[in-house]
Amino acid sequence: MNLTNSQRAEVLTQALPYIQKYYNKVVVIKYGGNAMVNETLKQQVMEDIVLLSLIGVKVVLVHGGGPEITDMLRRMGKESRFVDGLRVTDKETAEIVQMVLAGKINKSLVNYLEAKGGVAIGLSGIDGHLIEAQMKDDRLGYVGKITAVNINPITDLLEKGYIPVVSTVGCDMEGNVYNINADTAAAYIAGAMGAERLITMTDIAGILADKDDPDSLIPCIDINDAVELFRSGVISGGMIPKVECCIEAINHGVKKVIILDGRVPHAILIEMLTDEGAGTMVVEDKNNEHQRA
Ligand SMILES: Nc1ncnc2c1ncn2[C@@H]1O[C@H](COP(=O)(O)OP(=O)(O)O)[C@@H](O)[C@H]1O
Ligand SMILES: CC(=O)N[C@@H](CCC(=O)OP(=O)(O)O)C(=O)O
């Protein structure tokens, strides 16, 4: 699209109220493995994050990488098994999860952000005891239930202008490593930081009234709606932990949570710097919401 110079200036000034709204505010972005697959979209996500950081938004990137873990496990001769959306994780799998999330993906995202002109530092949940965990359920092995989040390493980095990039492996005092679902970790981190927004990126339009009908997007739900959507079975599969995490984050003080369609180019900027949305917003009480942004 070719814009004239005055149209460009117009676009920028229209973003001004949103820039003011988010200036110096914490926004946690959860970037999941399925949304990472397309290289062009990934570059755009990185550009959006760097832009937000440069205009003074305190962006925390929390990433997953489920498909890459599955792929690496397969290469090592291990098949993956999931129970209620969580990967059954024996000791060896936990090591491979740490390798893929804290090593490969975390460093690759830091590299991408820096290639776009951002300054980023990667952390795992082990660093600075950021994510403390214990075994969630014996049957799942080393899948972590978060017991504490120590946000100091994140706030220190934000204060110095870095984009913290967090991989979701947890630790305990005995030196065990736990595999933690990235949506869950993002919700806890956003809650602990009292974030203005949690944006969880996925590869579907948002919450759909009929999951097989892409035109049935529900643009906004509140906690009461979520209960009803669970009860009526509208939400199933991978959307269950996602919506549970949205509620968890809201209950811990996050103002708004967005389940964002990561397939839309520059979805993050559209969501944050325009009055359009690209996904489902989850709020505490819809009756108190008059404006999307
Ligand atoms: N009501 C619903 N609306 C949208 N997606 C739904 C719904 N119910 C179930 N789903 C499923 O949840 C999936 C999203 O969860 P998941 O694949 O785990 O996301 P991610 O990998 O991005 O974290 C969708 O692809 C869809 O198959
Ligand atoms: C316990 C558990 O299931 N952990 C996840 C961690 C990665 C993740 O959550 O990645 P996505 O956001 O890409 O799904 C896993 O092993 O796949």
UniProtKB/TrEMBL annotation:
The keyword Nucleus does not apply. It holds the Pfam family AA_kinase. Its main location: cytoplasm. Residues 25-261 form the Aspartate/glutamate/uridylate kinase domain. It is an enzyme of class 2 (transferase). Its EC number is 2.7.2.8. InterPro entries: AcgluKinase_fam (IPR004662), ArgB (IPR037528), Asp/Glu/Uridylate_kinase (IPR001048), NAGK-C (IPR041727). It catalyses: N-acetyl-L-glutamate + ATP = N-acetyl-L-glutamyl 5-phosphate + ADP. Keywords: Amino-acid biosynthesis, Arginine biosynthesis, ATP-binding, Cytoplasm, Kinase, Nucleotide-binding, Transferase. The record marks 30, 242 as: Transition state stabilizer. GO terms for molecular function: acetylglutamate kinase activity. It is found in: Cytoplasm. Pathway: Amino-acid biosynthesis; L-arginine biosynthesis; N(2)-acetyl-L-ornithine from L-glutamate: step 2/4. Substrate binds at residues 65-66, 87, 179. Catalyzes the ATP-dependent phosphorylation of N-acetyl-L-glutamate. Belongs to the acetylglutamate kinase family. ArgB subfamily. NCBIfam families: argB. This is Acetylglutamate kinase. It comes from Dysosmobacter acutus.
